[in-house]
Amino acid sequence: MPDVWPYDLLTPRAERARLQGVAITGGQSVGGIVRSARMDGGGLWVIEQEFFFHSRAQIKTARAIEAGLDGGTGEIIVRVFETPFAPVGSVASTVPFSDDSTFSDGTEFGHVPSGATLTASAALRATTLSLTMIVGTLEGGERFSITHPTKGRRLYTISRVSGNDITIRPPLREAVTVGTELDFMQPSVVCRLANPDDFLGALDLNNNLTATAVWVESF
To answer: How far is CA 54 from the centre of its chain?
Structure first.
């Protein structure tokens, strides 16, 4: 399992997540028409994030992550900020250890309710899922993650809601079974760093550091 980007410590000040390479085109005809076709794989997620690091912990953590990513060959689970757009009523909660103990400072594990579970299996590259909401109401436009057994953490966007069925993009990266959880509170995806040479900027005179990450979904 790849490491997880420490979102609470290294929080982006701006980000953009999009699917790239969804369609292929045959160029423009003499009449000015551009013909395109959708690719079955649904493209790859590209996530651009901008950061401003000013504390010792932030800068050292960013440097350690940069080193561990080995020039863009290593993988990491990157989270996108979707909390304001999660289903209405979704609330993050915390839970203790199995023996009811907590960390030394009294805090508990972070635990996020899945939000929904699937009521029917779906095949690889399926674009329609049937589900039961645990918390919240879907409106369309929400993003969520599924932790697949082989492909790991993958990110999806809801393009349409029809009763208990949703239409998603990209198509499923891996087949899913009944009871699979959908995580709307911390949607994330396995990525690699596409711009390792430009990731960390220069330290200024006040030991502040800017960073720009371009993440590309990795398989």
So the answer is: 25
Q: Output the furthest CA–CA distance in the chain (Å, rounded).
A: 71
pLDDT in tens, 137-184: 899 999 999 999 999 999 999 999 999 999 999 999 999 999 999 999
Query: CA–CA separation, 196 vs 205, rounded Å?
Result: 23
Residue percentage of the chain with pLDDT more than 90: 69
Could you tell me the pTM of the whole model? 0.82
**N-term to C-term CA, the chain:** 12
Domain 81-186 has CATH 2.40.30: yes
Handedness of CA 72, 76, 82, 86 (dihedral sign): positive
Q: Calculate the CA dihedral of residues 89, 85, 117, 42 and round it to 10 degrees.
A: 170
Rounded to whole angstroms, how far apart are CA atoms 219 and 199?
Answer: 21
Strands 188-193 and 76-79: what pairing? antiparallel
Report the DSSP beta bridge partners of residue 23.
Answer: 38
* C-alpha span between 179 and 196 (Å, rounded): 38
Q: What sign results for the dihedral spanned by CA atoms 95, 97, 100, 105?
A: negative
Buried b (16+ CB within 10 A) or exposed e, 162-200: eeeebebebbbbeebeeebbbbbbbbbbbbbbbebeebb
Confidence at residue 30, expressed as pLDDT on a 0 to 100 scale: 53
Where are the domains positioned within the chain? 1-79+191-219, 81-186
Q: Are 171 and 40 in contact (CB under 8 A)?
A: yes
